[in-house]
Amino acid sequence: MTQQENIEVISVECLRVRSKDQTTEQIDQKVEDRTSDRTSKAVLKKTMLEGVETVWDRFEKQQPACRYCSTGVSCQRCAMGPCRLMGGDRVRGVCGADADLMVARNFLDFIAMGAASHSDHGREVVETLLKMSQGQAPAYSITDEKKLRRLADEYSIDTSTKVDVIAEKLALAMLDEFGTTKGELQMAKRAPQGTYDIWKNSGILPRSIDREIVESMHRVHMGVGADYRDFLVQGMRASMADGWGGSMIGTEISDVLFGTPSIKKTRVNLGVLKKEEVNVSLHGHNPVLSEMMVKAAALPEMQNKAKAVGAKGINLVGLCCTGNELLQRRGIPQAGNHLDQELVITTGVLEAMVVDYQCIFPTLPNTASCYHTKVISTSPKARIPGSFYIEVNPTNALEQSKQILTMAIENFPNRAPEKILIPDMPMEAMVGFSVESIRDALGGSLKPLLDLILAGKIRGCVGVVGCNNPKIKQDYGHLTMTRELIKRDILVVQTGCASIACAKAGLMLPSAASEAGSGLKSVCESLGIPPVLHMGSCVDNTRILTLVAELARLAGVRMDQLPVAGAAPEWYSPKAAAIGSYFVGSGVSVALGVMPKIEGSPRTVKMLTEGIEGVFNAKFWVEPDPRKATAILSDHIEMKRKALGL
Ligand code: BF8
Hints:
Blueprint: H1 3-6, H2 24-34, H3 38-50, H4 55-61, H5 67-71, E1 74-75, E2 83-84, H6 99-133, H7 145-154, H8 163-177, H9 193-202, H10 209-219, H11 228-258, E3 264-268, E4 278-283, H12 287-297, H13 300-308, E5 314-319, H14 320-330, E6 334-336, H15 341-346, E7 350-355, H16 364-369, E8 374-377, E9 388-389, H17 397-411, E10 427-431, H18 435-441, H19 447-455, E11 460-464, H20 476-487, E12 490-494, H21 496-504, H22 518-527, E13 532-534, H23 541-555, E14 564-568, H24 574-585, E15 590-592, H25 602-611, H26 613-616, E16 620-622, H27 626-643
Parallel strand pairs: 4-5, 4-7, 5-6, 7-8, 8-9, 11-12, 11-14, 12-13, 14-15, 15-16
Antiparallel strand pairs: 1-2, 3-10
The chain binds FE(4)-NI(1)-S(5) CLUSTER with Oxygen (BF8).
The site of FE(4)-NI(1)-S(5) CLUSTER with Oxygen has 15 residues, from helix 14, helix 21 and helix 24.
């Protein structure tokens, strides 16, 4: 393919809504109902006044949602259908599947999709390490050699040789995990023995990463199993392959290549965009691309190019989980979370939106076409009509990143001044709480954290994680729950778009300790940290797994015995379903704020919210009201404390 063909773009139209016909009062009310953040409100209002369509408009047009699809009793799985179980004499699909089977099969498919996405991302990170070690990825290097050696030890790799050799052996050993015939994954052994035994005895110990996903796809084919319970157990096993396999590998090797996060200050919200600079947002998930963009933007040749078009410099800003990756390692400012992705464009000052994959609205090029923004896609897995396609891989990454930046710089003079709105005042945030940086902050051990929990100054920990979902006012679930939890002296750890919600609201500042209960407040004040800790991207939920596993080992108990829980108040993604499942499988109960599509099978609901507790000592709750969900989480933590005799 020639360079010209490479950047040939399909033209797409600007999608408009009739919000121009609405009164200002009506628009104000909608803005209020749609989002919580001050800067998002300002830009959403402008977008609505301009009549440019957003995710909320499309959500409205889809209402009312199909009841059969919402509850999981519709099936598109084979060519005898489609089928919907509508009651009366329509209680089985053409193949004979009843509601339990249909729902459980759909749910396994959903979890496997999420596990596949995260694990495939992990694979690409390790492939980059392999290419680097073999001299084929010249722009990449090892940033955290200590971690490389520690991981090599974990994999029983000889560390007395050259770093490149260790890196190559580790990369090959990790890639082997995707199809290993050993029957188990190396990093699952991080769990305490008692927890590991539960996995083995209950049949959710993953055999290899790809195998669990492929087998899930096999099982959801018509006419394989017919017992809904087997589908749910396989969903757990596929999710564990992600949590203790693909995602964990992704986190660990991202740290090796790009640095293990350390505590630092940064800024968040749409106010991080700059009028005088070339603004480029990095959106998606994999740091293999975005780290190279950061490297390219720092080059004097790129800075000079920017100055030549009248800009003061290049302003890189993050979005979604790519943003979280950059935030925690480089302190790159974050423009917003999932539902902000269109609003970054509609500020009118974004020269380029660079994407890799996952969580990217396919209509971003349409949104961009209403302004001057160029959307640039980079992954052969994720070509998007209307975007410029510049393929980035480990071998060509720096050169391609320079080309992308050049396109952004050349686009700077094309802004339409009448369409510009940058809200003022970014919010400051303290981020970068990896397990390693928490340990360092505590003087080299996690024991002081365990002691604070045992002593009751901190009652327990909850991971509030996950996405935004237009079914819920943006960030409302995250903020309400997090505030309620810290008030009760429960430390909140966060990843993904949930963490950006809290960062935008100032909850990741040490001064937010004033909102915490007296115990947590005194701990935060003495350490100078916020009561809500940013632990990274969605892949980095594995940091939380590692943290809980280490605390459990220190306490000499199973993971399920600790006073901890998880929550995803605004989740939307299949990846979030996989994350929730691997937490529950690991013994950490999870509160969901959005009902999965399982209500069509009361037996499935019962199994996930009650039945599995007898096996994993953990379960799901589904509670849309974040206040009620907090009460459930808090009671759960107190119950766990009591069981430990605390
Ligand atoms: O990767 S970016 S919307 S899926 S939380 Fe959710 Fe946000 Fe997507 Fe997780 Ni992260």
